[in-house]
Amino acid sequence: MYLLLIIVILVAIIALAAVWPMCFMHPLASGKVEGTDITAIKNRSNNLFFIPAGENWIVIDAGSDSRAVQSEMERLSIDAGKVLGVFLTHTDYDHVASLPLFSNATIYMSEQEKQMIDGSTYRQLIKKNKLPVCDADRIVYLPDNEVVELGGHRVRSIWVPGHTKGSAIYAVDEKYLFTGDAFKADKGRMTVHPYTMDRRRADESISKIENECSWYEKVYTAHYGIL
Ligand SMILES: [Zn+2]
């Protein structure tokens, strides 16, 4: 009886520790981001960002709940078929779930992140990351500092490993920076994001981002709004 109670308490502590960091996340509400032409969709604890590209869209990350993303897109009159490209900051489940909605899109991610989905690196113990798309031809792996010209925009990938082995951030038109989970915004300061695989490398990447950030009008995080 006591053993069972101890096991229940331990499981409860582990579960609480897993969800606790989410209590401090504060993504943007869905809708147009003030002062820009970018649309945010709030999906549970994070944001996807839609950048207009003429009649089409470029998307940063793909959320954790495909159905909720779909209904928000319908509400905001965004046609998933008009998404030209989805740029993934990394492949954790809360950034990839709605990829199947964007059936015409090319999926971009860092070359280093490939190890997270091909089985060569585990996210935790025996858990691998997965992309919910089976068409490998649609995935383009980007080197560091690679520029993709798409829909009239220039999207530059910047490698920032740490949170996952191949995390990347994206500079769009050298004006906006999308940083995914490369850091946690804590009262205006950048600190290591929860659930990070390699804290030392994440710290090095944060220094790299701090140098980069001064160049951009706005920095969009996945879980903490705009910096
Ligand atoms: Zn995340």
Describe the overall structure:
Strand 12 (184-186) and strand 13 form a beta hairpin. It is built from four helices and 14 strands. It starts with a helix and ends in a 6-residue tail after the last strand. The chain has a seven-stranded mixed beta sheet, covered by helices on one side. With 227 residues, the chain is α/β, with parallel strands linked by helices. The model has no long low-confidence stretch (mean pLDDT 91). It is globular and about 65 Å long. Helix content is 21%, strand content 29%. It has one domain (26-221): Metallo-beta-lactamase, Chain A. It binds zinc ion. Zinc ion binds at residues 46, 92, 94-95, 181, 222-223.
Instruction: State which percent range the strand residues make up.
Output: 25-35%
* Main sheet attributes: strand count, strand direction, barrel closure: 7 strands, mixed
The arrangement of helices and strands along the chain is HEEEEHEEHEEEEEEEHE
Number of helices: 4
End-to-end span in angstroms?
Answer: 50 Å
CATH third-level topology: Metallo-beta-lactamase, Chain A
State the name of the first-level CATH class.
Answer: Alpha Beta
CATH architecture: 4-Layer Sandwich
How many structural units, i.e. domains? 1
Ranges where pLDDT stays below 50 over 5 or more residues in a row are none
Integer-rounded radius of gyration = 18 Å
> In percent, how helical is the residue content?
10-25%
- Globular, elongated, flat, extended or rod-shaped: what is the shape? globular
Number of strands: 14
Order of strands across the main sheet: 1-2-3-4-5-6-7
The hetero compounds bound to this protein are: zinc ion
* CATH homologous superfamily heading: Ribonuclease Z/Hydroxyacylglutathione hydrolase-like
Q: What number is the mean pLDDT?
A: 91
